[in-house]
Amino acid sequence: MIKKWLNPGQTLAAGNADYKTIIEAKLGIYCLFNDTVKEVMWGLKNLMMSIVPDEKLDLTDEDRPRMCQGMKMVLDRHNIYVKAEMINRPIIEMTCAVYECDFCVRRKHSEILRQGGQSLLKVSKINCEQWNCMKLATALKLVCYPEEGIELGNSPEMLSVDEARKLRGDAHQYEGEFKKYTFLTIYKEVVWACHLRTKALRCLRTLVKEAMRLSAETRGGGTKQFGWRYGI
């Protein structure tokens, strides 16, 4: 069956090192097995019920690893530390939600926002190279719609009072520089994703805390020993 479905020029990815060894030895077909393949296989195994809804056989814990490197990166980014054996499906799904929000806030519109940032440098002489996407989106929305209010502050995501004053004063110079509605749409989406991420992180931390509590109860211990360690 493998030879039937493997077309010329394609590379076969193996689910684990044993599969790779057996297929290469028995069929003479080179198999790819590395960290990238492991990440893909982790996703496929955890999505098995969605991809093949008629499949009744559930995977064992050994066949379905609890945590992939991508998931660990998301958790680490938000200072959420949990042992792999405590990971369950709700935690996986909520981490995916956080990742999607992160992607929207950090990367989805980064290219067009950076292009807009060049206009801020050219017109207002403001160097925003180190600004994050949330702050950039706010600045570009402000020069497009200077009459609308925005939240100001000293956090990395917010414009300062001086920055906002400068951009409002220069707003008339941006006429024809770019399409206003584009940056308004991006701003609204990024703000929405930020708010949703806050809710998802709150829920995720609750799920992790509950998983730790259940793990402690299973071992016959208490829960206080975990709270300070994981910062939840």
Structure description:
With 232 residues, this protein is mainly α. It folds into two domains: 65 residues, no CATH class; 166 residues. The protein contains eleven helices and two strands. A two-stranded parallel ribbon has the order 1-2. Helix 2 links the parallel strand 1 and strand 2. Helix 6 packs antiparallel against helix 10 and helix 7 packs across helix 8. The longest helix has 39 residues. The protein is elongated and about 70 Å long. The C terminus is likely disordered.
Topology (SSEs and partners):
Layout: H1 2-5, E1 12-13, H2 17-27, E2 31-32, H3 35-46, H4 48-51, H5 69-77, H6 89-108, H7 110-124, H8 133-144, H9 161-170, H10 180-218, H11 224-230
Helix pairs in contact: 6-10, 7-8, 8-10
Q: Keywords, please?
A:
232 residues, mainly alpha, 2 domains, two-stranded parallel ribbon, disordered C terminus, Nop56/Nop58
Short description:
GO terms for molecular function: snoRNA binding. The chain is built from eleven helices and two strands.
